[in-house]
Design brief:
alpha/beta; binds adenosine-5'-diphosphate; Rossmann fold; 3-stranded parallel sheet; two-stranded parallel ribbon; 6 helices
Amino acid sequence: MASAVYAGSFDPITNGHVAIIQAGLVAFDRIVVAVLTNASKSPLFTVDERIEMIADAIADDPRVEVDRFDRGLLVDYARSKGISVILRGLRAVGDFEYELQMANMNRRLALGITTVFVPANDYFFVSSTLVKEAASLGGDVKGVVPELVERKLREKYGR
Ligand code: ADP
């Protein structure tokens, strides 16, 4: 069974992330979505809230597992799950340099592990940061995030 791990902060999950998971499922039988819990940035949503929103967005697809990734190297996490592919989305030229560096560093850290990129599509302009900024200022983020996320953003920002 071909599996991949898709890691990120998902603070919150956007339709861009969902599109990457869906595209990933064309190539892989199983995707483990790993929520980074120790990112340096102070998150808007708790890990449990982020996991709940991801689970809701993928609507209990049995091919997708949602997990948390607390510490250490992503390659070690992947190995612990018996997975040798890291799935990443590529949005724009801006993503490219960093993603190429990271993919090569990860390959060095663990020779048996490779990174597979999926091109961003309709949601190439969407990032969690931009979504939060727009929502915090009262912007309507309908259509760029799943419905539950839209609701939770309204609650967080008291609108
Ligand atoms: P982090 O917060 O750790 O940077 P993100 O949640 O931003 O992680 O992103 C995780 C992965 O999802 C990255 O590979 C990123 O390029 C990809 N991604 C994020 N948003 C989009 C989008 N709108 N379209 C395609 N890929 C995306």
